[in-house]
Amino acid sequence: MTDHTHADTLRTPIVAVLGHVDHGKTSLLDTIRGSAVSEGEAGAITQHIGATDIPLDTISGMAGELIDPSDFDLPGLLFIDTPGHHSFSTLRARGGALADIAVLVVDVNDGFQPQTEEAIDILRRTGTPFVVAANKVDTTPGWNPQDGEPIQKSMDAQSERAKSMLDENLYEIIGQLSDAGFSADLYWRVQDFQKNIGVVPLSALTAEGVPDLLTVLMGLSQRFMKEEMAIDVTGPGEGTVLEVKDERGFGATVDTVVYDGVIRNGDTVVVGGQNEPIVTEIRALLRPRPLAEIRTEKQFEKVGEIGAAAGVKIAAPDLDDAMAGAPVRVVRDRTVDQVVEEVKAELAEIEVETSENGVVVKADTLGSLEAMANALREAEVPILRAEVGDIAPRDIAVAETANQDEHKAILGFNVDLLKNAESDLENADVKLFKNEVIYQLVEDYERYVEEKQRAQQETVLDKVVRPARFRILPDHTFRQNDPAVVGVEVISGTLQNNRNVGYFEGNEFERVGDLSGIQKQGDDVDEARAGERVSIAIDGPTVGRDIEEGDTLWTEVPEKHAKILEQELKEEITADEREALQGYLETRRKRDPFWGK
What we know:
CATH class of the largest domain: Alpha Beta
Keywords: GTP-binding, Initiation factor, Nucleotide-binding, Protein biosynthesis
Oligomer: single chain
Domain Elongation factor Tu-type: 466-553
Helix content: 25-40%
CATH architecture of the largest domain: 3-Layer(aba) Sandwich
InterPro entries: EFTu-like_2, EFTU-type, P-loop_NTPase, Small_GTP-bd, T_Tr_GTP-bd_dom, TF_aIF-2_arc, TIF_IF2, TIF_IF2_dom3
Domain Translation elongation factor EFTu-like: 251-326
Number of domains: 4
CATH superfamily of the largest domain: P-loop containing nucleotide triphosphate hydrolases
Shape: elongated
Binding site for GTP: 19-26, 81-85, 135-138
């Protein structure tokens, strides 16, 4: 790195806004943009692709007495709309998150929701510093809105009742943060933002508290990120793909956030692709036309170059296979091979471990694919194949090749089923799970597997020979042989008809015959439970020679069945059946320690 002493080499910090689906992320971004637009003339705000740049003077205008612009030498803040903004995806820059700092939006009335937990997980994993925007304070019963004012001023204007209701909700959120392992407090009470998370109460609707949010973000960036904001202004540009989009007249384009260096029209770039990195030459760098010219037909204007940090749309040949979340690198003074290797290495960090068998996973971005892989690893679900993109016919074909039934499944996070794959899915023995919340997706799949296993166990249980130990009652011989008919009491287990029975001579099992009938109070039955007395017919033995009154007999459980009962169905059988099984196995294993294992 060269020496960066001039102020103009500090780039804008990149801010990501995340949170649960209806907690007001989009409206917060709109409010920040809107207040910024009304603050200065529209020209102050450069619209970027997938991002909004708010310069320092605009921020200090909005924040009023909260900010002294001379305290800052960072140029402002760049808010990125995380793509498919329904969910947060970990967009990456070299080895870390793309966002330098994040705003976690939480509805002050609802507190933490599934996607909030997910966002927190990702922030924790990537180590991204963040502040919490406790949104919708204006919905507190009896709230008296103070449009655009700093939040403490606004809170002073509220009734005691409204204030205490809001406080209760805020402390609830602080408690939830602490459960998630973060020490947090209302931002004006936080001494050290590196140790504590600041909570900023605000309303995206009335903009009260928005000045505070901008102040806290500026302060955090200035204090803790100044070194990281130093960039090589003229170096080869580096960025991350937000989204791949087809644009009329340009074909496939990539919406990119540039976080280092500069990208120029005509540059050769390497972009991460579905299979191999894509090497291509930039045909056009596009950004939205200024608000003033929005009436013109063309929504984009071409620019010659773009420097960090900025959002830009890159038009170039061969971008169809580019991937959301993948790196974009300008080649400039290096060899193409060198840069291709760099991009491969960066993608390799995100490689998902796949195994010989498992489920097929599809997600909208590399970041969400990675988050899915982590969640499935924790749930011990193996992955056969993981890719970015919508669900295509070949995904269904791959899922069908899984060797276990429960792995014939596709888990799709924030992706669609392509039209040409619909009939394939209907005709395939493949189950599709789709959701916009990662852990919900994993839970749906786990529930499906459990139900499948339970159903399998029930059919297996119907076929398995149940263990039983029973005793021939004295004075209960009704017939000596062909078949022998005797009265018995079942000591433990379930005595089933049409089973082989016998006894242990030492540790040897001696089969005496086959049960051909069970009668309970004169009626034929299929089985008798522990504690019941029934009369049974046994083909084979003669009472007085092969068996005696008072003898204890056992149902003969085939070794394979014994193994299934002990290893898979132990929880499904009754306590007395377990007891009979235990006794049977112990005796068998005295002779052969590995019997039924």
